Amino acid sequence: MIARIIMSEHPNERDLKLFASDHKDAVKGGFLTNTQFSISVQTSPTSLLVISGYENQDSAESNLEKRSQ
């Protein structure tokens, strides 16, 4: 299992909600469909902690370009 962990800080609560919605869409049918799991936890009114688990290194690297956009 390979884990990717990110902290995302947003300028306001509206932007955070948009990011969270995009994350949900990415897990359901986008570039994060190859994860074993992906959890986002709101850590403040404008920040999230996202933990995504992948089966192996190849799987984790397969969406690197799309995750970086």
SSE layout and pairing:
Elements: E1 2-9, H1 13-29, E2 37-44, E3 47-54, H2 57-61, H3 64-67
Antiparallel strand pairs: 1-3, 2-3
Report on the architecture of this protein.
There is one protein chain. By secondary structure, this protein is α+β, with helices and mostly antiparallel strands. It is built from three helices and three strands. It has helices spanning 13-29, 57-61, 64-67; strands at residues 2-9, 37-44, 47-54. A three-stranded antiparallel β-sheet has the order 1-3-2. A hairpin with a 2-residue loop joins strand 2 (37-44) and strand 3. It starts with a strand and ends with a helix. The mean pLDDT is 93.
